[in-house]
Amino acid sequence: MNAHIKNVEYAVRGELAIKAEALRDQLNKTNSLPFKTIVNCNIGNPQQLQQKPITFFRQVASLCDNPDLLLSENRHIVSQLYPEDALQRAEVLLEHIGSVGAYSHSQGIPHIRENVAKFIAERDGYAADPENIYLTQGASAGVQSILSILVKDKSTGILIPTPQYPLYSATLSLLDATPVPYLLDESQDWSLNVTDLETSVSTARANGTDVRALVIINPGNPTGQCLSEENMREIIEFCYTQQIVLLADEVYQTNIYEPEARPFHSFKKVLMSMDSIFHDLELVSFHSISKGMIGECGRRGGYFEAHAIDPEVMSQIYKIASVSLCPNVHGQILVDLMCQPPKQGDPSFEKYSQEIGSIYSSLRRRSRKLEACFNSLEGVTCNPAYGAMYLFPQIRLPAKAIADAEAHGKAADNFYCLEMLDATGVCVVPGSGFGQKEGTWHFRSTFLPPEDLFDDFCENLTNFHKQFMNKYRD
Amino acid sequence: MNAHIKNVEYAVRGELAIKAEALRDQLNKTNSLPFKTIVNCNIGNPQQLQQKPITFFRQVASLCDNPDLLLSENRHIVSQLYPEDALQRAEVLLEHIGSVGAYSHSQGIPHIRENVAKFIAERDGYAADPENIYLTQGASAGVQSILSILVKDKSTGILIPTPQYPLYSATLSLLDATPVPYLLDESQDWSLNVTDLETSVSTARANGTDVRALVIINPGNPTGQCLSEENMREIIEFCYTQQIVLLADEVYQTNIYEPEARPFHSFKKVLMSMDSIFHDLELVSFHSISKGMIGECGRRGGYFEAHAIDPEVMSQIYKIASVSLCPNVHGQILVDLMCQPPKQGDPSFEKYSQEIGSIYSSLRRRSRKLEACFNSLEGVTCNPAYGAMYLFPQIRLPAKAIADAEAHGKAADNFYCLEMLDATGVCVVPGSGFGQKEGTWHFRSTFLPPEDLFDDFCENLTNFHKQFMNKYRD
Ligand SMILES: Cc1ncc(COP(=O)(O)O)c(C=O)c1O
Ligand SMILES: Cc1ncc(COP(=O)(O)O)c(C=O)c1O
After folding, report:
1. Closest ligand 1 atom to the C-alpha of A221?
2. ipTM attached to this prediction
3. What share of chain B is helix, strand, coil (3-state, %, to 5)?
4. Which residues form the Aminotransferase class I/classII large domain (chains A, B) (predicted)?
5. Could you give the domains of chain B?
6. I need a surface site. Which of A288, A292, A315, A344 has the fewest CB within 10 A?
7. Candidates B215, B251, B289, B300: which one to mutate for ligand 2, based on the most atoms within 8 Å of Cβ?
């Protein structure tokens, strides 16, 4: 068997998640647990926790699925169910796609790539080329292809943050490459310190590791940070000087909760706003339909933009994409809709804005409520979520709890999270699943439980924490 | 850069396909080519060539996309557009799935896996366990995961047929494993000769290659063969004796054109019908929604059943699946519909059967027409397609054509196919993209062009071939 696969760890769907499934089965059979439901806060999966999909997006998707609805003989019935702009959008898409049941171009449907390029140009104020855009089955697939191309062998090093989203560590294990961790600074809102980055690179290089790329997740998962433009410029200069490819995971670009103080800037925009010598920096930026206010995780859609990537590498990217034939067309359609949503004046615009707006403000309220809840707990501190869907509180556990965890052969944070699951039905992920500074303990929780249950949710967590602390108080 | 990726060849979407795209662009701009359209016979992509989707499947899919259509206040309008069984099926699916926008279980939605298990049990007469079924993003993704787990390093050998579907050779290149080719016997309807298999294995093992698995594509791509039950039993005995995992790619299981003489048998069924000592043989069987009469390639859905696979390997399979989070839910829904289509008595049954039946008989007619056309050409011989969607004629080219090809730095079959594309707009794939017996030349063509254009299509190919032969006649 492939030994690298044995080393893969994937905490988001690991021990805690599997135990949560087992408890859910148990709940379905008996009522013998101290809670009524399992609350999956282990994964950023909004529609699993009752977030409603965007109506316009689903309307267009369903018309593309069932083009009989667009036949003129059905129009008088269908127009009672669908607004005119949804019908028109589906017609335009099908004109370009043909059937959603056909394999598409391996790189993604050209018309949709053009719409992605327009979106990027409008967002950044700098042009984008559809030829540099690849549609993917979620950002996950894009990240995995790019890493597989950059990695030569064990000697290849890829800089990844601590803490990080485990897609990165897991993919590097699979490829048998060397992760080169750098620390995000919890005391500075999880920002990057370029001096630390330089140390990480020179140490790795001194050990014979060929450091080729730097992964940045911004807005951050699990940290919720949102980088300042100044910090981003330093990072770009660093990559340029060190001849390192920059991989920018920007899937949370619209989950921004302090837009004045901490707006989102894309790395592409910051790069293009800098002196033209930096424009040659190799940058790949990832985006997804799974996050933002859209939350269409189950469709698996996304894209990456490859900026200034070596043409030979570009041709390898195409080849890899073609072995898997094409990304699923439904995901591609959602990418189109995400990039070109209804505009002012369109029949669906008002409803669309209202839906996006209400999800957004609810997410912001929930993030603050949960942050306040965590910060009110004994021994817990938690940075605010400037972005993304998660909080990553630090927990200071009593020595007795740590000893008890050790006696059970568990890391202390894992032990804490398992007790939380047993007591409350809430499933979170221990900090060790993401990596954390030696000697500190954290866990990651989404703030996605439905708003009407949120007070209960916070109260349950608070009660659990109190009991846990009392149980293990020294 | 990853050197293994440089070695990947993927002919189905290679030079010919890229040139065909360029010619299509040229056609859109000017009318200066000797044909009116590009006909993509390079890929089994039925809906690209105007095959209609199955109405019931698309109805259910569209209802799952837009659950507002299921609201009771819309029912009086919606029931003018949708039959009752489509509405009910969508309701059942959504009850189990929640939202199609949520990440599902990494292994696939449990309810759908149960339906797959029922389908397998009905097909084979032997039970299947939903826990052994993984839903995948097309068979491609399933094959890639399983191979990535079986391959340890360069020393791992995987038996693959010559000719083969290039997913296999490409994936082995990517994984830097050793392909161990075995020949399909063109003179015996492309069947497998177990003595040859034994020779391939012992030679490879003598060279230090650890042969772990045998890939069989049945019905065959590109060959169109359909194996006899007797041949399958020999293969199973061979794998059992040699302790080799059997990977059965059965995506064309319903594309069977001589059901009396050459019916499809699944390897699972044949295995279970044999003496129980063989039941321990490790077998993975792949299926897909892309083929058959369904042809929903763009959705990327499929499954594999893992039979008697080592539990430790099973847990690695789960881990790999979870790194990619989950297969797209739309593809999963189509797997459900493929496995449990409308039944006798359901409102949609008649239409469903009529649609499947008419696609089936048209495919069969087209396969015979194209076979007859190929066999009528000078120097060309072609086995019938007992299954799948392709013919793989052998072409005997004049020495002058071979010399001219060499002078252009091209393989002779590639040269022939490029000239065909230039003259007719028909894009096929040279035999070298699949592998062929040394000193023989072939090409693969689907028989998917629409039936009303089929006579023209055959005539164009015939005229091209005559001109080619005359041009290069010695
Ligand atoms: C930082 C980050 N990147 C990528 C992904 C993958 O998203 P998807 O593959 O659904 O697009 C996630 C999902 O949670 C994520 O948090
Ligand atoms: C033999 C064979 N296996 C697997 C596949 C992949 O099918 P998909 O990934 O669309 O399910 C194909 C597609 O043509 C094929 O011919």
Report:
1. 1
2. 0.95
3. 50, 15, 35
4. 83-452
5. 3-51+361-472 (3.90.1150.10), 55-97 (1.10.287), 110-339 (3.40.640.10)
6. A344
7. B251
